[in-house]
Amino acid sequence: MAQERFCILFPPLVLVLLVLDCVQPSLAKESQAEKFQRQHMDPDTSTVTSGYCNQMMKRRNMTVGFCKRKNTFIHETLPDVQVVCFEGTVRCENGKLNCHQSTSKMRITYCLLKEGSKYPKCDYETQQLQKSIVVACEGN
């Protein structure tokens, strides 16, 4: 009896899981490097408007289920950011020692959730800056 139920329910369950796998974004499957690029890299942007953070935080899936409080977008090439891993070591916010600070200033946009803004209406302040960055480096 139990085996019959299993045989009846198993094919539809597999089908549902396959559909969910195709429909759901693969955010859980991304590597740390891919997550960093999704959340922080935007090398092709030269002009930033006041609505930049609202658009980018949504576009890059940082307002799904909650509003990420702050984020930095780097407007430099990936090789320019990767080279920071060979520059000065600094302590990370989490206490680890795999963070590195750039010796040169980089073009960045700092996004900060506005006071009183709540999910699902995530509203951000956009601030364009030129400053050194700190990145955590692991492996390649």
From TrEMBL:
Annotated Gene3D superfamilies: Ribonuclease A-like domain
Domain Ribonuclease A-domain: 29-140
A Gene Ontology cellular-component term: extracellular region
SUPFAM superfamilies named in the record: RNase A-like
InterPro entries reported for this sequence: RNaseA, RNaseA-like_dom_sf, RNaseA_AS, RNaseA_domain
Segment forming the signal sequence: 1-28
Subcellular location: Secreted
Keywords: Disulfide bond, Endonuclease, Hydrolase, Nuclease, Secreted, Signal
Protein's GO biological process: defense response to Gram-positive bacterium
CDD domains: RNase_A_canonical
Molecular function terms, GO-annotated: endonuclease activity; hydrolase activity; nucleic acid binding; RNA nuclease activity
Family to which the UniProt record says this protein belongs: Belongs to the pancreatic ribonuclease family.
PANTHER family: RIBONUCLEASE, RIBONUCLEASE PANCREATIC
Protein name stated in the entry: Pancreatic ribonuclease
Source organism: Arctonyx collaris (Hog badger)
Lineage of origin: Eukaryota, Metazoa, Chordata, Craniata, Vertebrata
Protein's gene: RNASE1
